[in-house]
Amino acid sequence: MKKPDFTDEQLVSAISSGGQARETALKAIYEDKDLKRMVAAFVRNHQGDATDGQDMFHEGMIVLDRNIREGKFRGEAPLKGYLYSICRFLWMNQLRKQAHTSTVAEMPLSTEPDLLTPEVTMITEERKDLLNRLLNELGERCRQILELWKLSYSMEEIAETLGFSSSDMARKAKYRCHVSLLEVIQKNPHVEQLLSR
Amino acid sequence: MDLETYIERVEQYAEGLLPDAERLAFEAELAANAELRQALDLYRLGQEVIEQGVEAQLRQQLQGWAKSDADTSAAAPPLTAKRVTMRPLWIRFAAAASVALLLGWFSMQWASRDYSDEAIFAAQYEAPATSTFRAGTTIYNPLETGFKALENNDLQAAEDFFKSIPSDHERYAEAQYYLGHSAGQLGHYDVAIAAFQASIERREARFQEKAEWNLLLTYVAAKQTDRADFQNLLNRIAADPAHAFQKRALELQQKLGSFLRGYRLL
């Protein structure tokens, strides 16, 4: 799961704290070749190919990152097992959606023992599409500021990364961008429908 | 609803930063104030929107790492030779020696092809995917003309357009980044180098590392790898484990330092 100098706790802590530490930790996890092979083998044994295996590993990493940042991973299982479970869940879910075979719905998740049931938030394509359209209505600069803020960058780090003269300036910009985003959402005619679901 | 009335309190509540007493008061107010409930819903949806951006960034990063892995593990095709059947022993030895020499010569040529500036650039360069082009607003995207030109592979039109974006434009760094790509693909390396440098100077997180990497590749394409600024930038990226292109920079360093770069006989 990791380079020898990272424990699960260190990886989780680095991802939660955001900034460059998060990226370093994600890269350390990404470089676990055994885990990639395990995911690829699982996908290959369940109607997928090498590309599907890689896609699932990437999507699993994205869910892992989000779950750690949102505190949904509580360290009850090794990080490696947790990520593997997520990838398996995502692939089986995709198979069900694609309904390639009529037997998929009856297929057990895996013949291997379940390490745990990962908490994976699935959103509909329609919702994802609307969220992306809302995101694209923000200016590039605002988008960067809000993404860094979401990744727990401090105002000092945001100022340094994006070239603001001080953390106060970054804080003001973040506030303006946040209000702009909420206004964009508020004005979008499809949002009310989305919120009601 | 005036969002500014609520946003700070909503944020503190949603992020769990309110002390217990204030949180309880906030929840009581939520029950009675429809505008506050609406503001909280908007805030939560806003967080989902931003998360989409964070995930898109990570997805792009993962694809970059995957490509880097694939490039590293790509094996050279095996070289084979047919058996030579000649009766006299000395002829066999001579033939074998000739074949070995030829194989050696072709092997050097084959291997050195991968170490030329052109081959290094071709192996490493990726034109920006159309999926990365960003809309400004759904009504008006100030860079749309340039993106359309890139999509249509009309590189000259793209270069002309991105050049026209003034330096005080809020998306200047992005325009310069795509100017670098357009000009680089046209072989206008001086323009491309200046554009990637201008994009880097703006220090916008989304473009900085990509612009740095593409600046390096443009130097390679322009056969300017002996420049001090090329060497400094390459060394800096290669030494920075947090840089998205560190691994590829290390590979580039290795290729540029290979003795095979000297074996260009043809």
Helix content of chain B: 55-70%
- As a whole number of angstroms, the C-alpha radius of gyration of chain A is 19 Å
- As an assembly, this protein is heterodimer
CATH topology of the largest domain in chain B: Serine Threonine Protein Phosphatase 5, Tetratricopeptide repeat
SS element count, helices of chain A:
10
Our estimate of the beta-strand percent of chain B is: under 5%
Binned strand content of chain A: under 5%
Tell me the number of strands of chain A.
0
Principal-axes shape call of chain A: globular
CATH architecture of the largest domain in chain B: Alpha Horseshoe
Q: Strand tally of chain B, please?
A: 0
CATH architecture of the largest domain in chain A: Orthogonal Bundle
What would you report as the Rg of chain B, rounded to the nearest angstrom? Answer: 28 Å
Précis, in short:
The complex is a heterodimer of chains A (197) and B (266). With 197 residues, chain A is mostly helical.
Describe the structure.
The complex is a heterodimer of chains A (197) and B (266). Chain A has 197 residues and is mostly helical. Chain A folds into 2 domains: 8-106, Rna Polymerase Sigma Factor, Chain: A, CATH 1.10.1740; 125-195. Helices cover 66% and strands 0% of the residues of chain A. The model of chain A is unreliable at 100-116 (pLDDT under 50). By secondary structure, chain B is an all-alpha fold. Chain B has 3 domains: 3-72; 76-113; 119-262, Serine Threonine Protein Phosphatase 5, Tetratricopeptide repeat, CATH 1.25.40. Chain B has helices at residues 3-14, 20-32, 34-73, 89-113, 117-124, 144-151, 155-163, 172-186, 189-201, 205-221, 228-238, 246-257. The N and C termini of chain B lie far apart (73 Å).
